[in-house]
Design brief:
Structural class of chain A: alpha+beta
CATH architecture of the largest domain in chain A: Alpha-Beta Complex
Strand order of the largest sheet of chain A: 8-10-7-11-9-12-13
Helix content of chain A: 25-40%
CATH superfamily of the largest domain in chain A: PurM-like C-terminal domain
Oligomer: homodimer
Radius of gyration of chain A: 21 Å
Number of strands of chain A: 13
CATH topology of the largest domain in chain A: Phosphoribosyl-aminoimidazole Synthetase, Chain A, domain 2
CATH class of the largest domain in chain A: Alpha Beta
Largest sheet of chain A: 7 strands, mixed
Chain lengths: 352, 352
């Protein structure tokens, strides 16, 4: 007891992914029913009939959300959404969730009701059942941890490691919106704190606010895959930004990639607000994160199934590993793709 | 945004169980695969072959543990143990866990390694696989949320609601030890803070320290139930104290109970230290909590299977609901049993 450490390695030196890799190296799986452990969007368990798919995501006040502009109901909704999104990224059907919530005495019952209203609204929308969890006090702030459980047939599951050379790299929806929504909210909070009489000026950017405050997992896309008979070779959800996520797919698949700037889908509101903030919209889309769109690869032979559908954008293709991770700009200049996305540790530890 | 509430109900008015009841009332289950939702030790999901059993427990620094006397390795071990204990209380076999950990930059990589060493040690001991989770920063303190997944045949599962009139009420091991271990650690911390040169005096109470710092879920008992052909009618694990837990079984089963003071198993170290602290050992056993022993009921007809086994104590019996919850003291005096156990909200909100 009252121990001390002589050697100290800062977590910021590793970052979140470094830490996960480090933990993963020490894990030995023992049970035959464990098909996939740490390292994909979710774990996969054999249950005889179907596969059970499990994922956990935690939201921490002051790190993942700011209650001065995130209504509790939206926050509850988002805590469920981000977990459902991980199940979608495995091509699995969401079924149940558990919630663990730590609350300080700053919060009243009415506040917690609002939080659970959002949680249950998302449950209803995505047809999942809240089946259990834990509630406890916290010395300060609010922490929400959600575990989501889904099912899939073994042959329907899509992992991060299945991308093949020449596969097309596709994304759903558009990117960078959630990040710009956050920039807007943070600016208006600052204005409000400096002059509480001024009303926040959020007009014309509803879409971006919704992207940030109430993200929707792309369950609709999973259903469309069935409808259009599309089976991705690899898939991940975009929580940390396109650059970071495509590099996860490439690392796990042992491949390289080419991403084309002109192909990246960006909404006009995102573009407009990025300009206003003096930011490059492409950088926002590459590194912004929290869009919860799906990033997936399909064989070139499936091109016809994708090409005319508004919900998909083909942003590049998979190459040999030795080709590295490349970004081709509008002037046809080639750059090394770097993941400067939202790395939970680096970002927060650096700013402290 | 920037919302305010006019009505405010303090969480301390409801307590943890009141809040859980409140949340449970608003939950509508939608999926056919959800067999049991909120309200037992764990949720139960139909997976065709077996039932999948899921439970989540969260440990928060400053509420559930004090790092000045809880080594991180023990804490990791305990975070897993308390969840395995919930699966044992359902008579289910633990299989997988996920962990969500929020860490402030006060912690180094070496500290997190120590935490995961404890987590993985418990995994090895209880033959479960760590299959995923989340790691993120926290503005202050450490939060660990573990979700444990197990399996059981439908007919083997034991719920809280199966107790019948005249059933014997049994507990495993002994009670109150974990609570006295905590009292001892808190006293020695105080001494240390007042005079850092004094070494903590913990000698002779190893058992109590272990009960507090490194609780063991009673997986051995689940195996013995099979061996002895015992099938409890109702079961719960003792995390909040015997009084609180038997009342959960009675409430869910719609029954009453009689508990006999002289039958409650208390270790001599617990008794000795309680006396030294001027505490009533019986009260420590009834309300102390964190012992993670199993409390279960069996039909009177099964008495012979239990009576001569050192690992079980028969502490009372189930009565009609109208009989209420009764505690019979050594002088044969009858008292109403009250749950003054470790209620996360009341305790902590009161002391703030």
């Amino acid at each position: 007891m009252f121990e001390n450490h002589n050697n100290r390695t800062e977590l910021s030196e590793l970052g979140e992914f470094g830490l996960i890799r480090h933990i993963r190296e020490n894990v030995e799986l023992q049970n035959a029913s464990t098909i996939v452990g740490i390292g994909d969007d979710a774990a996969v368990i054999d249950n005889g009939n179907l596969r059970t798919v499990v994922t956990t995501d935690m939201l921490v006040e002051g790190v993942h959300f700011d209650l001065s502009f995130s209504p509790l109901k939206h926050l509850g909704y988002k805590a469920v959404s981000v977990n459902i999104s991980d199940l979608c990224a495995m091509n699995a059907k969401p079924q149940q969730i558990t919630t663990a919530v730590a609350i300080s005495n700053r919060f009243s019952l009415e506040a917690i009701e609002e939080l659970y209203e959002g949680i249950l609204l998302a449950c209803k929308k995505y047809n999942v059942d809240l089946v259990g969890g834990d509630t406890c006090t916290s010395p300060s702030g609010l922490v929400i941890s959600v575990t989501a459980i889904g099912t899939a047939k073994a042959e329907d599951l899509v992992y991060r490691n299945g991308a093949e050379i020449n596969d097309l790299i596709c994304v759903t929806g558009d990117l960078g919106g959630a990040y710009m929504g956050l920039q807007l909210l943070e600016r208006e909070k600052k204005v409000f704190l400096e002059n509480p009489k001024l009303q926040p000026d959020l007009e014309g950017f509803d879409y971006l606010l919704e992207r940030q405050l109430k993200p929707e997992p792309r369950w609709d896309i999973i259903e469309k895959f069935k409808l259009y008979n599309i089976r991705p070779t690899a898939m991940i959800d975009i929580s940390d930004g396109l650059a970071s996520e495509i590099m996860h797919i490439c690392t796990e698949s042992g491949k390289g990639c080419q991403i084309y700037e002109e192909k990246i889908p960006i909404d006009h509101q995102t573009r407009e607000l990025a300009m206003e903030f003096g930011l490059d919209p492409t950088i926002c889309a590459l590194n912004g994160g929290e869009d919860y769109e799906l990033l997936f690869t399909i064989p070139l032979s499936e091109y016809e199934k994708i090409k005319d559908r508004a919900e998909f954008s083909i942003v590049g293709h998979i190459t040999d590993k030795s080709g590295g991770y490349n970004f081709i700009d509008r002037q046809n200049g080639q750059h090394e793709l770097k993941a400067q996305g939202w790395d939970a540790f680096k970002k927060n530890f650096d700013s402290e």
